[in-house]
Amino acid sequence: MLENEILTENSSMTVQHFSREDVLKDYRLVALSRQCSLLVRKEVFSGRAKFGIYGDGKELCQLALANAMQPGDFISGYYRDQTIVAAVGDMTWREYFSQLYGHPDITFEPHTGGRTMNNHHATRWLDENGKWLDQTKMYNSVAGVSSTAGQMPRAVGIAYASKLYRSIPELKDISQNFTRNGNEVCFATIGDASTSEGMFLECINAAGVLQIPLVMSVWDDGYGISVPSQYQTTKSSISKALAGYQTNEDGAGLEIFTVKAWDYAGLIETYQKAAHLAREFHIPSLIHVEEVTQQQGHSASGSHERYKSPERLQFEIDLDCNLKFREWILENDFATEEELKAIDEESAKTARSCQKEAWTAYTDSIKPQYQNALSLIQQAIEESSNGEEIAKIYESLSKAYYPIHSDSVRAVRRVLHAMRFDSVPSKKALQVWVKEAVDSNFKRFTTHQYSVSDESPLKVEAVEPIYTEDSASLDGREILNRNFDHLLSNDPRIFILGEDVGKIGDVNQTLSGLQDKFGEERVTDTGIREMTIVGQGIGAAMRGLRPIIEIQYLDYIFYPFATLADDLACLHYRTVGGQKAPLVIRTRGHRLEGIWHSGSPMAVLLNGLRGIHLCVPRNMTQAAGMYNTLLNSDDPAIVIECLNGYRLKERLPDNLYDTRVPLGVPEVIKEGTDVTIVTYGSMCRIVMEAAVQLENIGISVEVIDIQTLLPFDISHKIVESIRKTNRVIFADEDMPGGASAYMMQEVLDNQNAYRWLDSKPVCIAAQPHRPAYSSDGDYFSKPNVENVFDAAYAIMHEVNPELFPEIY
Ligand SMILES: Cc1ncc(C[n+]2csc(CCOP(=O)(O)OP(=O)(O)O)c2C)c(N)n1
Ligand SMILES: [Mg+2]
């Protein structure tokens, strides 16, 4: 259709704008997309696919959106957007079905390698070595998430990156893979019901404030699964509800459009206008697409007859966008009934053949291991003393209707259980088979949680701080300030944004003076909106920039937690290394004052954010070394600075800017022989003070700062200490059962340290409530020097009650 043709705000489209060729091309696409949707449901009912969700009823609006896209643009959509991704050529229909079956091979399913449900799209941005490809030549699908509205926060960041690329001249030389002078548009899509999410509403506000090239579409089919609009949206209409955001004489906001889902010409016109405003002027917009239908209901796991009235079901049929498009084509003489019928029939055939190809490829990929397993089991039946039992396993495996990898693995493992007393050739062969199966299934389902490139932070070598007699003593905050200054000076891709980071240089003045020096685009104040601050960071990091985003206090990480967990943490994993977002999240926590300014919910982060490195420095020099490591590598990470450490004096290393803290390498900060204490962050100072007091009464403590909770002691250094002391305490200020328990499990279980213990291992943690305000609140809520002293002393009392008699 009218590629590259741009309508101005005031022009409108008439039938003369369309050519027969383009109209029929569009019809072919929506007809094929529909047929594919219909097949998805059938494939689920036949048992070949587990779950299916589809884009029927939303073909025309998506086609119009796709027609407004240009190479280099982005689509941050949701599970209905198959027509867009197919229209721009980012997905073939065979790949669509491969994803439906969960084919775990990126040759066939390049978007997510079978790791997500169907209709979760992700363009491969990285080559096999984890290096960026040229996004400006692609139509970029940003890796889908199932959580409704989860696709929105990073869309803000994707669009924000265009703004930065256009306004920071120093980026010109390094931006060729990512931008054409900021002319890209990010199209985000969302269902009507999901606009009820706070996440969506926060994005609307952020987009209006930031003025970025973001075009947000709401596919309004009147339902969120079974719940209709009147329970979802004020005034049952998102465009009416958001009318106050419309750009007008009061100031810039969003352009708000409404258009019907079945109005081909109206949709094309609206998308051309919105894209033009975004691309040329970075004006964001909201397109409320109304009267969208669902031909088959929400998904393959239910039927809409259960909750829709007969009238509404009739509406779904009457306002079917493909049908209306068909009528429009006939009315305007673009084609005859026969021609359209031929296209319809052709579409059904093509959809079926794509489905079959995908199914055959999927089953063919399983067959070799399956058949090999069967023949080895057959051999085992003859050789084993337990042949009868094995024969039953064989029978059930050979009858599997659609055998999958786990069927074979389960069967072979059970056969080996039955052969435990055998010593026959087939047993050896089955053992080898299992080893290979474990390895190949690891590759299919478990790889790529972290970077595999040569920029992985795990490959960064340690550079220790160097001190000389002349090394000055500075406040911790000044050390960070100098280091951030250096980072910003040396890499124009780095920028810092968050609440109060600009004008006042953050609440602890670690950034003071840096906005004046580097400008508002590099050190940027934001609204209080942690979710979209994270989204800004993720999106910009996806486009080659190196954001450091700030969550003002660790306690507020719960606000953006969903985005961190559902999007950032699993991005590299769920795209099998196809996408990355090397975002550095800076926050401060552990210990200061009161319930919302002294939390240390490390276990929450540990358990919820696997995929993001978790750095827990004890002072600002160490934090600086961590930033230097992270900004020279390509994984996402969180750095939790000690809230009570900014005004403490630290010596300034002569080589501050070159320092690198390696990830997963603990540091022994005090040597000792009686008890090992494993700790991190603010607790280091408390443990060190206790260690001095313990030393004074004859107890020698070895103190280990783990430095990073994720990764944790990669080379098993801690067990070496326990081999020497035979006693261990794990101390932190998380709640009981939190990160102290995690450290204990890592060391006793993974490092087998239990073998060397002569005393019961001990965990020191905070009280199981949020910490109370005031110095007394702190003392009685969090572990203190006396707690640490008493814990070590109690261990030594058990060892030698005469030397260490009971105290209390
Ligand atoms: C955060 C979250 N809550 C609930 C769900 C379960 N869920 C999946 S789709 C859906 C309805 C979404 O409706 P809408 O946004 O209107 O999109 P539609 O499916 O109608 O296109 C719900 C509740 C989810 N995926 N994520
Ligand atoms: Mg809906």
UniProtKB/TrEMBL annotation:
InterPro entries according to UniProt: DH_E1, THDP-binding, Transketo_C/PFOR_II, Transketolase-like_Pyr-bd, Transketolase_C
What is the residue range of the signal peptide feature? Answer: none
Question: Which CDD domains does UniProt cross-reference here?
Answer: TPP_E1_PDC_ADC_BCADC
* Domain of life where this protein originates: Bacteria
Q: Where in this chain does the record put each Transketolase-like pyrimidine-binding domain?
A: 474-648
Coiled-coil region list = none
MF-aspect GO terms: oxidoreductase activity, acting on the aldehyde or oxo group of donors, disulfide as acceptor
PANTHER family assigned = PYRUVATE DEHYDROGENASE E1 COMPONENT BETA SUBUNIT, PYRUVATE DEHYDROGENASE E1 COMPONENT SUBUNIT BETA
Known function = E1 component of the 2-oxoglutarate dehydrogenase (OGDH) complex which catalyzes the decarboxylation of 2-oxoglutarate, the first step in the conversion of 2-oxoglutarate to succinyl-CoA and CO(2).
Spell out the protein name for this chain.
Pyruvate/2-oxoglutarate/acetoin dehydrogenase complex, dehydrogenase (E1) component
* Organism name: Pseudarcicella hirudinis
